[in-house]
């Protein structure tokens, strides 16, 4: 099995993200599993340059008309990379075993084998994938915001109104409304009206529409962003949330990114982009 105690997950998440920025999402578990095999589980042998080189092997220029949304890249299949690395049958099998070993590993100390959190993520994923196909908002960002805004679906607003994103009922909203307390600024409480939905799925659909219909999201680069870090920053820049820390610094994108890395939500982006490739071939 993979040497989990010697594995620095953040190192691999970062290597995958460095390669993915402005392109498509590389799967960090593939990098960790391959290094585990080629360095015989001695992760101290992994260097920045070797791992960055490996990550780059999972992306290639795409000059065909089958694009993943508007990306000029496509993701390379794991088996193709293993062939290029001249791995034999045993090594390939070990890579797949190691990937399975990493099933519940993220940046959190405890593993991700929590039934209720995994169920929540899986429940939202199909609709989040639709929002990606339709608008280009990454599933990792959609689901992370839902987790953050609704406290894993346990907030009063989400249990009473299925409102996962804290979207307010402005004048454009013709549906049902609910009055709630809000605490956007450090230690300040305000009462506001929020949108009511029939289901979590409807809440996700409306979130996609909300971003699309508010010009400021396009202007801040939300829809140009092809990577979760860039997209989370663009959403903060557009003023989605004014949440601040005690020093008055905006911390919304940081919170969104932390949840993505803790829960491996960027691997949902990878999944979506791989499927997008397959669906269009």
UniProtKB/TrEMBL annotation:
<protein>
    <submittedName>
        <fullName>Glucosaminidase domain-containing protein</fullName>
    </submittedName>
</protein>
<dbReference type="GO" id="GO:0004040">
    <property type="term" value="F:amidase activity"/>
</dbReference>
<dbReference type="InterPro" id="IPR051056">
    <property type="entry name" value="Glycosyl_Hydrolase_73"/>
</dbReference>
<keyword id="KW-0378">Hydrolase</keyword>
<dbReference type="InterPro" id="IPR002901">
    <property type="entry name" value="MGlyc_endo_b_GlcNAc-like_dom"/>
</dbReference>
<dbReference type="Pfam" id="PF01832">
    <property type="entry name" value="Glucosaminidase"/>
</dbReference>
<feature type="domain" description="Mannosyl-glycoprotein endo-beta-N-acetylglucosamidase-like">
    <location>
        <begin position="109"/>
        <end position="271"/>
    </location>
</feature>
